[in-house]
Specification:
ABC transporter permease; mainly alpha; globular; MetI-like fold
Length: 290
């Protein structure tokens, strides 16, 4: 009995082997670089400990970069939540044909990961000054969106571009939550005399509220950390934090890697808080919809 027990203890935990590739990937490409960035934020070029890099974050130009990044992230997250929720509710609970749901979710899965240079090129080819939609609106309908004040290389233009992946991500996350709304809850509300608006205000929205707030936090973090799309679309014309970070680490004029590490550390803090809010609220919402 003792020998078999000892052999059992000496056996390799084979059920953990499937997790090893993920653990190695997370350590090499996530945890290790993150710790390198955090350590670099508290060091000077000579490798000595300092808080000057963090103090430099409070300069007016950097504060302005964080502020415009927060505004763009907030606007794209809010609009993404509102539009994405409306689409998901129409497909899940509305009167749309059920065959639309499959293609919509498939497209959302692809579009939520479509970003970077291809997305920037797609919007330039569509809504740029010589884009297809811009030309069609001008030649067919006499509408010059740029004469009306629209500019793709601006706060509003970047927000619209971000919505291309924010709305699909919202659809993917909120659809299971809408599916979790039990039919018995609506039937009970109807039996008690509640209207459709009262059901949503008193029953559905309080249950979905943690999911909605958590998804808003996730979309905020998703937009705040986006760099390739913004850099490819606007270049240096819009000074958001990721572009300023790129200039500090790789630029020829503003090169200060340790200030870049401090900028990245600030982004890690902001996105980390947003993701923590999402995880906590997501866990809370799942207790209701199970």
């Amino acid at each position: 009995m003792d020998v078999s027990a000892a052999r059992t203890r000496r056996q390799l935990p084979l059920h953990w082997l499937g997790v090893l590739p993920f653990a190695a990937f997370a350590i090499l490409f996530l945890l290790w670089p993150t710790m390198h960035i955090v350590a670099g934020a508290f060091r000077n070029p000579q490798g000595e400990f300092t808080l000057q890099n963090l103090a430099n974050l409070w300069t007016p130009s950097i504060i302005a970069s964080y502020w415009i990044s927060i505004r763009i992230s907030f606007a794209s997250a809010f609009l993404g939540c509102v539009i994405g929720f409306a689409i998901a509710a129409a497909v899940t609970l509305g009167g749309l044909p059920r065959w639309i749901r499959g293609p919509l979710l498939t497209f959302s899965g692809v579009a939520s990961n479509f970003a970077g240079v291809p997305l920037a090129f797609a919007f330039l080819a569509t809504l740029g000054r010589l884009g297809l939609v811009t030309i069609l609106l001008r030649d067919w309908f006499g509408i010059n969106i740029y004469a009306m004040g629209f500019n793709l290389l601006s706060f509003f233009g970047l927000t619209v571009t971000y919505l291309f992946f924010q709305i699909p991500l919202m659809i993917l996350i909120v659809t299971p939550a809408l599916d979790g709304l039990k039919r018995e809850w609506r039937e009970a509300a109807s039996i008690l005399g509640a209207s459709g608006a009262q059901y949503w205000r008193i029953v559905a929205f309080p249950i979905l509220w943690p999911t909605l707030l958590g998804t808003f936090a996730l979309l905020f973090a998703n937009a705040f950390g986006a760099v390739a799309t913004a850099f490819a679309l606007t270049g240096s014309s819009l000074s958001i934090v990721p572009i300023l970070l790129f200039a500090q680490i790789r630029g020829d004029v503003l090169q200060d890697p340790h200030l870049g590490y401090a900028l990245a550390f600030g982004m890690i803090v902001v996105t980390g808080i947003a993701n923590l809010i999402y995880v906590v609220l997501r866990a809370r919402s799942e207790r209701w919809t199970r």
